[in-house]
Protein backbone atom coordinates (compact mmCIF):
# COMPACT_ATOMS: atom_id res chain seq x y z
CA UNK A 1 0.00 0.00 0.00
CA UNK A 2 1.70 3.27 -1.07
CA UNK A 3 -0.12 5.01 1.80
CA UNK A 4 1.72 2.85 4.36
CA UNK A 5 5.28 3.47 5.56
CA UNK A 6 7.44 0.98 7.48
CA UNK A 7 9.88 2.45 10.01
CA UNK A 8 12.79 0.15 10.94
CA UNK A 9 15.57 0.72 13.45
CA UNK A 10 17.93 -1.34 15.60
CA UNK A 11 19.20 -1.30 19.18
CA UNK A 12 21.94 -3.26 20.91
CA UNK A 13 19.73 -3.92 23.93
CA UNK A 14 16.12 -5.02 24.21
CA UNK A 15 13.43 -2.42 24.88
CA UNK A 16 10.05 -2.69 26.55
CA UNK A 17 8.27 -1.56 23.41
CA UNK A 18 8.74 -0.46 19.79
CA UNK A 19 6.86 2.78 19.13
CA UNK A 20 6.70 5.49 16.46
CA UNK A 21 5.21 8.85 17.42
CA UNK A 22 4.21 10.71 14.26
CA UNK A 23 2.08 13.54 12.96
CA UNK A 24 1.29 15.62 9.93
CA UNK A 25 3.38 18.75 10.41
CA UNK A 26 1.72 21.19 12.86
CA UNK A 27 -0.98 18.69 13.81
CA UNK A 28 -1.21 16.52 16.93
CA UNK A 29 1.04 13.50 17.48
CA UNK A 30 -0.30 9.97 17.46
CA UNK A 31 1.56 6.75 18.08
CA UNK A 32 1.68 3.26 16.64
CA UNK A 33 3.43 0.29 18.18
CA UNK A 34 5.14 -2.56 16.37
CA UNK A 35 7.42 -5.42 17.26
CA UNK A 36 11.05 -6.41 17.52
CA UNK A 37 13.13 -9.55 17.29
CA UNK A 38 16.57 -10.66 18.39
CA UNK A 39 19.08 -10.89 15.56
CA UNK A 40 22.31 -12.61 16.53
CA UNK A 41 25.47 -11.84 14.59
CA UNK A 42 27.78 -14.82 14.98
CA UNK A 43 31.27 -15.47 13.72
CA UNK A 44 33.85 -17.92 15.03
CA UNK A 45 35.16 -15.46 17.62
CA UNK A 46 32.12 -13.49 18.75
CA UNK A 47 28.39 -13.65 19.41
CA UNK A 48 26.79 -10.21 19.08
CA UNK A 49 23.13 -9.46 19.82
CA UNK A 50 21.08 -6.86 18.01
CA UNK A 51 17.37 -6.04 18.20
CA UNK A 52 15.53 -5.09 15.01
CA UNK A 53 12.37 -3.03 15.47
CA UNK A 54 9.67 -2.35 12.88
CA UNK A 55 6.47 -0.33 12.97
CA UNK A 56 3.97 0.07 10.11
CA UNK A 57 2.24 3.44 9.77
CA UNK A 58 -1.08 2.87 8.00
CA UNK A 59 -3.43 5.07 5.96
CA UNK A 60 -1.19 8.10 5.62
CA UNK A 61 -2.34 11.13 3.65
CA UNK A 62 -0.90 11.28 0.09
CA UNK A 63 1.28 14.33 -0.39
CA UNK A 64 1.41 15.18 3.33
CA UNK A 65 4.65 15.83 5.19
CA UNK A 66 4.99 13.89 8.44
CA UNK A 67 7.37 14.24 11.38
CA UNK A 68 8.24 11.21 13.51
CA UNK A 69 10.41 9.84 16.29
CA UNK A 70 10.98 6.16 17.02
CA UNK A 71 12.03 4.19 20.08
CA UNK A 72 10.22 3.74 23.40
CA UNK A 73 8.99 5.89 26.26
CA UNK A 74 12.42 5.55 27.85
CA UNK A 75 14.54 6.62 24.88
CA UNK A 76 13.69 8.32 21.59
CA UNK A 77 15.47 8.99 18.32
CA UNK A 78 15.82 12.50 17.02
CA UNK A 79 13.03 13.91 14.85
CA UNK A 80 12.84 12.78 11.22
CA UNK A 81 10.39 13.56 8.41
CA UNK A 82 8.97 11.99 5.25
CA UNK A 83 6.50 12.99 2.55
CA UNK A 84 3.90 10.42 1.50
CA UNK A 85 3.95 9.75 -2.28
CA UNK A 86 0.96 10.78 -4.34
CA UNK A 87 -0.79 8.80 -7.06
CA UNK A 88 0.44 11.16 -9.75
CA UNK A 89 4.05 11.96 -10.64
CA UNK A 90 6.70 9.55 -9.29
CA UNK A 91 10.30 10.64 -8.68
CA UNK A 92 13.04 8.09 -8.00
CA UNK A 93 16.79 7.79 -7.44
CA UNK A 94 18.25 4.50 -8.68
CA UNK A 95 21.69 2.92 -8.34
CA UNK A 96 23.41 -0.30 -7.41
CA UNK A 97 26.69 -1.39 -5.89
CA UNK A 98 27.17 1.25 -3.21
CA UNK A 99 29.37 0.35 -0.27
CA UNK A 100 30.18 1.63 3.17
CA UNK A 101 33.56 2.76 1.85
CA UNK A 102 33.78 5.11 -1.14
CA UNK A 103 30.02 5.71 -1.33
CA UNK A 104 30.64 8.51 -3.81
CA UNK A 105 26.99 9.07 -4.76
CA UNK A 106 25.79 9.51 -1.19
CA UNK A 107 26.61 13.23 -0.67
CA UNK A 108 24.72 14.10 -3.86
CA UNK A 109 21.77 11.91 -2.88
CA UNK A 110 21.70 13.51 0.57
CA UNK A 111 21.48 16.96 -0.99
CA UNK A 112 18.72 15.80 -3.34
CA UNK A 113 16.72 14.29 -0.47
CA UNK A 114 17.03 17.48 1.58
CA UNK A 115 15.31 19.21 -1.37
CA UNK A 116 12.51 16.59 -1.31
CA UNK A 117 13.34 15.44 -4.84
CA UNK A 118 12.35 11.75 -4.47
CA UNK A 119 9.41 9.55 -3.57
CA UNK A 120 11.63 6.46 -3.21
CA UNK A 121 15.22 5.30 -3.60
CA UNK A 122 16.13 1.98 -5.25
CA UNK A 123 19.40 0.24 -4.34
CA UNK A 124 19.82 -2.63 -6.82
CA UNK A 125 21.94 -5.00 -4.78
CA UNK A 126 25.51 -5.18 -3.48
CA UNK A 127 24.79 -3.26 -0.31
CA UNK A 128 27.54 -2.01 2.06
CA UNK A 129 30.20 -4.55 0.90
CA UNK A 130 29.28 -6.60 2.89
CA UNK A 131 26.46 -6.53 5.43
CA UNK A 132 27.82 -9.46 7.45
CA UNK A 133 31.41 -8.24 7.69
CA UNK A 134 32.82 -7.20 11.06
CA UNK A 135 30.19 -9.48 12.55
CA UNK A 136 27.48 -7.15 11.28
CA UNK A 137 29.27 -3.91 12.14
CA UNK A 138 29.67 -2.98 8.47
CA UNK A 139 25.88 -3.20 8.17
CA UNK A 140 25.50 -0.93 11.19
CA UNK A 141 27.94 1.60 9.77
CA UNK A 142 26.23 1.53 6.38
CA UNK A 143 22.80 2.05 7.93
CA UNK A 144 24.15 5.04 9.85
CA UNK A 145 25.71 6.31 6.63
CA UNK A 146 22.44 6.20 4.66
CA UNK A 147 20.27 7.48 7.52
CA UNK A 148 20.21 11.03 6.05
CA UNK A 149 18.36 9.62 3.05
CA UNK A 150 16.72 6.38 4.24
CA UNK A 151 15.08 8.03 7.27
CA UNK A 152 13.21 10.39 4.93
CA UNK A 153 12.53 8.39 1.74
CA UNK A 154 11.56 4.70 1.34
CA UNK A 155 14.76 2.75 0.66
CA UNK A 156 13.90 -0.19 -1.61
CA UNK A 157 16.46 -2.96 -2.16
CA UNK A 158 16.95 -6.17 -4.09
CA UNK A 159 19.57 -8.87 -3.42
CA UNK A 160 22.95 -8.94 -5.14
CA UNK A 161 25.80 -11.41 -5.01
CA UNK A 162 27.39 -9.58 -2.05
CA UNK A 163 24.32 -10.36 0.06
CA UNK A 164 24.60 -14.14 -0.29
CA UNK A 165 26.30 -14.85 3.07
CA UNK A 166 24.46 -17.62 4.91
CA UNK A 167 21.51 -17.63 2.53
CA UNK A 168 21.04 -13.85 2.59
CA UNK A 169 20.63 -13.85 6.35
CA UNK A 170 21.55 -10.20 6.98
CA UNK A 171 19.68 -8.96 3.91
CA UNK A 172 16.49 -10.75 4.93
CA UNK A 173 16.56 -9.57 8.53
CA UNK A 174 17.76 -5.97 8.15
CA UNK A 175 15.41 -4.91 5.35
CA UNK A 176 11.63 -5.27 5.20
CA UNK A 177 10.30 -5.32 1.65
CA UNK A 178 6.73 -6.07 0.48
CA UNK A 179 5.56 -9.61 -0.13
CA UNK A 180 6.24 -12.96 1.52
CA UNK A 181 9.64 -13.98 0.08
CA UNK A 182 11.76 -12.11 2.68
CA UNK A 183 12.64 -9.51 0.07
CA UNK A 184 14.02 -11.90 -2.54
CA UNK A 185 11.26 -10.94 -4.98
CA UNK A 186 8.27 -8.64 -4.63
CA UNK A 187 6.16 -6.08 -6.48
CA UNK A 188 4.25 -2.91 -5.65
CA UNK A 189 2.36 -0.07 -7.31
CA UNK A 190 3.45 3.55 -7.08
CA UNK A 191 1.67 6.24 -9.05
CA UNK A 192 1.01 5.07 -12.62
CA UNK A 193 3.70 2.35 -12.44
CA UNK A 194 3.90 -1.28 -11.38
CA UNK A 195 7.37 -2.11 -10.04
CA UNK A 196 8.78 -5.64 -9.88
CA UNK A 197 11.92 -6.60 -7.95
CA UNK A 198 13.53 -9.96 -8.66
CA UNK A 199 16.50 -11.97 -7.44
CA UNK A 200 18.91 -12.67 -10.27
CA UNK A 201 21.04 -14.57 -7.77
CA UNK A 202 18.79 -17.62 -7.78
CA UNK A 203 20.20 -18.30 -11.25
CA UNK A 204 23.82 -18.26 -10.08
CA UNK A 205 24.13 -19.62 -6.54
CA UNK A 206 24.31 -23.39 -6.44
CA UNK A 207 22.77 -23.81 -3.00
CA UNK A 208 19.40 -22.50 -4.22
CA UNK A 209 19.09 -25.08 -6.99
CA UNK A 210 16.12 -25.32 -9.28
CA UNK A 211 13.29 -25.04 -6.75
CA UNK A 212 13.90 -21.38 -5.92
CA UNK A 213 14.26 -20.48 -9.60
CA UNK A 214 10.95 -22.23 -10.21
CA UNK A 215 9.25 -20.44 -7.30
CA UNK A 216 10.34 -17.00 -8.48
CA UNK A 217 9.49 -17.70 -12.12
CA UNK A 218 5.96 -18.86 -11.29
CA UNK A 219 5.44 -15.89 -8.97
CA UNK A 220 6.64 -13.48 -11.68
CA UNK A 221 4.41 -15.09 -14.29
CA UNK A 222 1.37 -14.73 -12.01
CA UNK A 223 2.28 -11.13 -11.15
CA UNK A 224 2.64 -10.14 -14.81
CA UNK A 225 -0.60 -11.87 -15.74
CA UNK A 226 -2.37 -9.91 -13.01
CA UNK A 227 -1.02 -6.47 -13.89
CA UNK A 228 -1.41 -6.81 -17.66
CA UNK A 229 -5.04 -7.84 -17.17
CA UNK A 230 -5.65 -4.29 -15.85
CA UNK A 231 -3.78 -2.47 -18.62
CA UNK A 232 -7.04 -1.45 -20.23
CA UNK A 233 -8.00 0.76 -17.27
CA UNK A 234 -4.61 2.55 -17.48
CA UNK A 235 -4.23 2.55 -13.69
CA UNK A 236 -0.65 1.25 -13.77
CA UNK A 237 0.32 1.18 -17.46
CA UNK A 238 4.08 1.34 -16.80
CA UNK A 239 5.71 -1.99 -15.93
CA UNK A 240 9.24 -1.54 -14.59
CA UNK A 241 11.41 -4.41 -13.36
CA UNK A 242 14.73 -4.36 -11.53
CA UNK A 243 17.31 -6.86 -10.31
CA UNK A 244 21.06 -7.10 -9.80
CA UNK A 245 22.85 -8.95 -12.64
CA UNK A 246 22.17 -7.58 -16.15
CA UNK A 247 20.94 -9.49 -19.17
CA UNK A 248 22.98 -7.26 -21.48
CA UNK A 249 26.29 -5.43 -21.07
CA UNK A 250 29.31 -4.54 -23.19
CA UNK A 251 31.81 -4.52 -20.34
CA UNK A 252 35.22 -6.07 -20.47
CA UNK A 253 35.00 -8.09 -17.26
CA UNK A 254 34.28 -11.81 -17.41
CA UNK A 255 30.70 -11.53 -16.14
CA UNK A 256 27.67 -13.42 -17.39
CA UNK A 257 26.10 -10.46 -19.19
CA UNK A 258 29.03 -10.48 -21.63
CA UNK A 259 27.88 -13.93 -22.77
CA UNK A 260 25.25 -14.32 -25.46
CA UNK A 261 23.31 -16.92 -23.45
CA UNK A 262 22.95 -14.99 -20.20
CA UNK A 263 21.27 -17.24 -17.62
CA UNK A 264 18.62 -14.73 -16.59
CA UNK A 265 17.85 -14.02 -20.23
CA UNK A 266 17.57 -17.52 -21.72
CA UNK A 267 17.26 -19.76 -18.65
CA UNK A 268 19.16 -22.62 -17.09
CA UNK A 269 20.04 -26.20 -18.02
CA UNK A 270 20.46 -27.43 -21.57
CA UNK A 271 16.74 -26.92 -22.20
CA UNK A 272 16.97 -23.22 -21.20
CA UNK A 273 14.20 -23.33 -18.62
CA UNK A 274 12.93 -20.26 -16.74
CA UNK A 275 14.40 -17.62 -19.05
CA UNK A 276 13.06 -14.16 -18.20
CA UNK A 277 13.49 -12.23 -21.44
CA UNK A 278 10.59 -13.99 -23.10
CA UNK A 279 8.33 -12.98 -20.21
CA UNK A 280 9.41 -9.35 -20.62
CA UNK A 281 8.54 -9.63 -24.28
CA UNK A 282 5.18 -11.37 -23.86
CA UNK A 283 3.88 -9.07 -21.12
CA UNK A 284 5.27 -5.79 -22.41
CA UNK A 285 7.64 -4.86 -19.58
CA UNK A 286 8.72 -1.33 -20.50
CA UNK A 287 11.95 -0.79 -18.61
CA UNK A 288 14.43 -3.11 -16.88
CA UNK A 289 17.15 -1.82 -14.54
CA UNK A 290 20.24 -3.70 -13.38
CA UNK A 291 23.54 -3.15 -11.56
CA UNK A 292 26.52 -5.51 -10.80
CA UNK A 293 28.87 -3.99 -13.40
CA UNK A 294 30.33 -0.77 -11.98
CA UNK A 295 29.35 1.48 -14.86
CA UNK A 296 26.32 2.94 -16.64
CA UNK A 297 24.89 1.65 -19.90
CA UNK A 298 21.59 2.36 -21.66
CA UNK A 299 20.23 0.13 -24.40
CA UNK A 300 18.01 0.78 -27.34
CA UNK A 301 14.75 -1.18 -27.12
CA UNK A 302 16.16 -4.70 -27.48
CA UNK A 303 14.95 -8.28 -27.59
CA UNK A 304 17.21 -11.27 -28.31
CA UNK A 305 20.00 -8.87 -29.37
CA UNK A 306 17.80 -7.29 -32.04
CA UNK A 307 16.96 -3.57 -31.82
CA UNK A 308 13.27 -2.64 -32.02
CA UNK A 309 13.14 1.16 -31.84
CA UNK A 310 9.80 2.92 -32.07
CA UNK A 311 11.13 4.77 -35.10
CA UNK A 312 14.46 6.07 -36.36
CA UNK A 313 13.67 9.62 -35.27
CA UNK A 314 12.05 8.68 -31.94
CA UNK A 315 13.45 5.34 -30.75
CA UNK A 316 11.73 5.55 -27.34
CA UNK A 317 8.31 6.56 -28.67
CA UNK A 318 6.21 3.38 -28.54
CA UNK A 319 9.30 1.12 -28.57
CA UNK A 320 8.74 -2.47 -29.58
CA UNK A 321 10.94 -4.12 -26.94
CA UNK A 322 12.07 -3.48 -23.35
CA UNK A 323 14.75 -0.89 -22.59
CA UNK A 324 17.61 -2.09 -20.37
CA UNK A 325 19.69 0.23 -18.16
CA UNK A 326 22.68 -0.83 -16.04
CA UNK A 327 23.29 1.49 -13.06
CA UNK A 328 25.87 -0.33 -10.92
CA UNK A 329 27.73 2.93 -10.49
CA UNK A 330 26.77 4.00 -6.96
CA UNK A 331 30.31 3.92 -5.60
CA UNK A 332 32.37 1.11 -4.04
CA UNK A 333 35.88 0.33 -2.86
CA UNK A 334 36.29 -1.79 -5.99
CA UNK A 335 37.44 -0.45 -9.34
CA UNK A 336 35.17 0.75 -12.12
CA UNK A 337 34.15 -1.73 -14.80
CA UNK A 338 35.68 -0.93 -18.16
CA UNK A 339 34.10 -1.49 -21.58
CA UNK A 340 35.12 -3.47 -24.61
CA UNK A 341 36.27 -1.36 -27.56
CA UNK A 342 33.49 -2.69 -29.78
CA UNK A 343 30.08 -1.05 -29.19
CA UNK A 344 27.26 -3.52 -29.97
CA UNK A 345 24.27 -2.35 -31.98
CA UNK A 346 21.91 -2.61 -29.01
CA UNK A 347 24.01 -0.25 -26.82
CA UNK A 348 22.87 3.39 -27.04
CA UNK A 349 25.13 5.04 -24.43
CA UNK A 350 27.74 3.90 -21.92
CA UNK A 351 30.21 5.40 -19.46
CA UNK A 352 32.42 4.21 -16.62
CA UNK A 353 31.79 7.37 -14.59
CA UNK A 354 30.30 6.66 -11.18
CA UNK A 355 26.91 8.14 -10.34
CA UNK A 356 23.19 7.49 -10.04
CA UNK A 357 20.04 7.70 -12.13
CA UNK A 358 16.99 9.87 -11.62
CA UNK A 359 13.60 8.82 -12.95
CA UNK A 360 10.47 10.92 -13.19
CA UNK A 361 7.20 9.31 -14.26
CA UNK A 362 4.99 12.23 -15.27
CA UNK A 363 1.79 10.35 -16.07
CA UNK A 364 0.45 7.25 -17.85
CA UNK A 365 2.31 8.02 -21.10
CA UNK A 366 5.55 9.90 -20.36
CA UNK A 367 8.62 9.28 -18.24
CA UNK A 368 12.08 10.81 -18.12
CA UNK A 369 15.46 9.41 -17.04
CA UNK A 370 18.85 11.00 -16.50
CA UNK A 371 22.23 9.80 -15.27
CA UNK A 372 24.21 12.05 -12.92
CA UNK A 373 28.01 11.74 -12.71
CA UNK A 374 29.57 12.18 -9.28
CA UNK A 375 33.05 11.86 -10.80
CA UNK A 376 32.22 15.05 -12.71
CA UNK A 377 30.63 16.77 -9.69
CA UNK A 378 26.97 16.36 -10.61
CA UNK A 379 27.30 16.64 -14.39
CA UNK A 380 24.31 15.40 -16.42
CA UNK A 381 25.78 12.57 -18.52
CA UNK A 382 22.78 11.07 -20.26
CA UNK A 383 19.05 11.65 -20.48
CA UNK A 384 16.06 10.59 -22.53
CA UNK A 385 12.26 10.66 -22.62
CA UNK A 386 10.16 7.52 -23.01
CA UNK A 387 6.69 7.98 -24.58
CA UNK A 388 4.18 5.17 -24.70
CA UNK A 389 0.57 5.16 -25.80
CA UNK A 390 0.46 1.58 -27.13
CA UNK A 391 -0.04 -0.98 -24.35
CA UNK A 392 0.26 -4.28 -26.16
CA UNK A 393 2.72 -7.10 -25.57
CA UNK A 394 5.84 -6.35 -27.56
CA UNK A 395 5.44 -9.57 -29.52
CA UNK A 396 2.10 -8.28 -30.88
CA UNK A 397 3.42 -4.74 -31.34
CA UNK A 398 6.13 -5.93 -33.74
CA UNK A 399 3.75 -7.64 -36.14
Structure keywords:
17% helix, single chain, 7 helices, 399 residues, globular, Purple Acid Phosphatase, chain A, domain 2, seven-stranded mixed β-sheet, Immunoglobulin-like, 2 domains, six-stranded mixed β-sheet, alpha+beta
Descriptive notes:
- The strands form 7 sheets. A 7-stranded mixed sheet has the order 14-15-16-19-23-20-24, covered by helices on one side.
- The chain is 17% helix and 34% strand.
- The chain is an alpha+beta fold.
- Helix 1 (106-114) runs parallel beside helix 2.
- It has helices spanning 106-114, 137-150, 165-174, 209-228, 263-266, 277-283, 394-397, and strands at residues 5-11, 19-24, 30-33, 35-43, 46-57, 65-72, 75-76, 80-83, 90-95, 98-99, 120-123, 127-128, 155-157, 186-190, 193-197, 238-242, 267-268, 273-274, 287-290, 296-299, 302-303, 306-307, 323-327, 347-351, 355-361, 366-373, 379-387.
- The two termini are 37 Å apart.
- The protein is globular.
- It folds into 2 domains: 5-81, Sandwich (Immunoglobulin-like), CATH 2.60.40; 87-397, Metallo-dependent phosphatases (Purple Acid Phosphatase, chain A, domain 2, 4-Layer Sandwich).
- The chain contains 7 helices and 27 strands.
- This is Purple acid phosphatase.
- Its EC number is 3.1.3.2.
Topology readout:
Layout (H helix, E strand, L loop, with lengths): L4 E7 L7 E6 L5 E4 L1 E9 L2 E12 L7 E8 L2 E2 L3 E4 L6 E6 L2 E2 L6 H9 L5 E4 L3 E2 L8 H14 L4 E3 L7 H10 L11 E5 L2 E5 L11 H20 L9 E5 L20 H4 E2 L4 E2 L2 H7 L3 E4 L5 E4 L2 E2 L2 E2 L15 E5 L19 E5 L3 E7 L4 E8 L5 E9 L6 H4 L2
Parallel strand pairs: 9-11, 10-12, 11-13, 15-16, 16-19, 19-23
Antiparallel strand pairs: 1-5, 2-3, 2-6, 4-5, 6-7, 6-8, 9-25, 14-15, 17-18, 20-23, 20-24, 21-22, 25-26, 26-27
Helix pairs in contact: 1-2
